[in-house]
Amino acid sequence: MKKTDLEALLKDMSLEEKIMQLVQVPGSMFEEDAALTGLSDKETLDKFKALAGSTLSIYGVEKLRKIQEEYIANHPHHIPLLFMLDVIHGHKTVMPCPLAQGATFDPEVARNGAKVQAKEAAADGVHVTFSPMADLVRDARWGRVVESTGEDAYLNGKMTASMVEGYQGEDISDPNHVAACVKHFAAYGGSMAGRDYTDVELSEGTLRSQYLPAYEEAIGAGAKLVMTSFNTLNGIPSSGNKWLMRDVLRKDYKFDGVLISDWGAIAEMVNWGFAEEFKDAAAKAMDAGVDIDMCTEVYGGNLAALIKEGKISEDLLDEAVMRVLTLKNDLGLFEDPYHGATKERFDSVVLSEENRAVALDAVRKSLVLLENKNKALPLKKDEKIAFIGPYADNIDLRSSWAISSNPETTVTIKQAAEEAFGKDKEIRFSNGCQLLDNDTVLGFEPYHSDTWEEDNNKLMEEAMETAKWADTVVMCLGEHVFQSGESTSRVDIRIPAVQIELLKKVKEKGKKIITLLFTGRPLVLDDIPEMSDALMICWRPGTEGGHGIMDVLLGEVSPSGKLPMSFPWSVGQEPLNYNCFKTGRPKPTEGNTMFTSRYLDCPNEARYPFGYGLTYSEFEISKCELDKEVLKKSDKADKITATVTVKNVGDVDASQTVQLYIRDMAGSRVRPVRELKGFKRVFLKAKEETKVSFEIKEELIRFWTINNAYESEEGTFEVFIRFDSMTQNSEATSFRLE
Ligand code: BGC
After folding, report:
1. Which end is more exposed in the chain, N or C (fewer Cβ atoms within 10 Å of the end residue's Cβ)?
2. Is 616 a pocket residue for ligand 1 (Cβ < 6 Å)?
């Protein structure tokens, strides 16, 4: 539809019709048993069902086609309904969770995964995905870290921008693509003490330098929607934060797409005590520029009165409605309200070999090897190998955010091991113990089993027999799928105690132990590293989890993942991030630490830092060479090239991620000890070497200065090129910005 036609349409719509474009209703309203939708009465329900502009959390091509057909036929202007869904890391083919994708340090993995997700979801009738989540996360207690790509603004920006490009392609009217929604704006990951839906207190310097850049980059990649967050930011709930939404989002980032609230977030401004009642909340959210109210009656029930009373102008309403209509138009829904989704198309695209190959590649690159004593891995095919633990044959390798997929399609560890070893080789499996301690509180409801003890004893006994037989035991342990995700904050970020007990018992048998950990967050590992000959973080690896893990265990590919979030020694260190400040009293590396910034009972640093991960080979890195010592501030095109030679000095072909960190030695606000400013994955055959270069331009070293501007400051900058954020593989060198 042409812009002028859209404008004519808007003009012709009644006030009620326009308001209803800004209302999103739960998909359950369109299901047969639409009794429980949270709406106050039958009349409202009927009106919302007939006129609401969008719906969410519903999928299935035939069902959605039918809903769309009926909806359009009854709508006064035959405007199509928008279908939105949380396709976070997979619709049917499930990619590793976003945190695992962060571990690949490979934006192509994110882009390819998003393309698959878009193709499958679009074929199933979905138009918009509530992804990517660009929230910077520093606190492993917060369950939603599983949905983020980690603790670093630069990494998050690259990964989430690639996701947006993958979801949207060149043109969202293409039936292979969907519109992306960047969330949760803003700083949701900074929630106090790791608790969900709570307050965030951040200085503008930290907000602008650390928390906002990834949203900006993802929005800059062309995202069609942005979602507000549940938290307050310095006392103001995001859905009513005019400065954040109008000045930062619309003006600074030039975002002209649809701004949608998170689920019920406008209504929650009343709970926060920021609005007196729903009408007040509606006025505040409209004023702040929130276009769509997700799943409440706040807009639907109050905007008409607010306009009549002159508290909200109809122009403001029209602007918001126009943005929603434009999104529908960009998706091509006025021409094809089904966006190309048919049953045939769905059957041909979902879970295809091609899609599974993308997921497999992502798993292989996301696994992070933390320990490998005496080259315990890869497994040798002539060993007697047993797989023990609740993840040895578990179909739920997804995160709690792969809601539309079917776990039955997952390749488990057992299935992949049987395929890899073939019929002639005996391998044994045992579930080992219960996955959860009895009476564990989970996201939805507490887990309880009356026969927990008895069942566990049986599992443990069988596991001991299996362990006795084996030379090497691969322990398949981890969190429950509902121990991370939304509303799953925890102060104890260890795996369930029963699994530790199992590990200890197997260890007593004196066998070689390879520990695999399935997790949606960094964990406190206690003595798991000591008890294990090798230790690998497998995250929530998704549909191709079993295959990818087996490929790495058997050495078909070397592990190459790097931690996207620091793993602490103790939960007491959280929040924890590598790019902290030095402080006025830095802890010395040796000697007396009294009156310095430190814990009495724990190191300051992470146990396994950001960027860390082993391969099956060994690498060396030369001193970093800069092609010149001075970068000209006035010349935006000026650049310094930093180069190192990286050599695979081991006997195994492997990929390594070379990471560029920069430290601004002094600034008008104190600067982090180092910040990631570039990364490159290189694949090197054994004994092969290559030069790796990074370009440093002025824009790379900008931050939120004392002038309240995102700019660079003259001075000295140290450059480190390394294989993780902490280990000094090569000497630092420096340049000046003048
Ligand atoms: C979450 C969002 C999600 C939305 C819709 C909310 O509870 O915070 O991330 O997109 O629900 O399902």
Report:
1. C
2. no
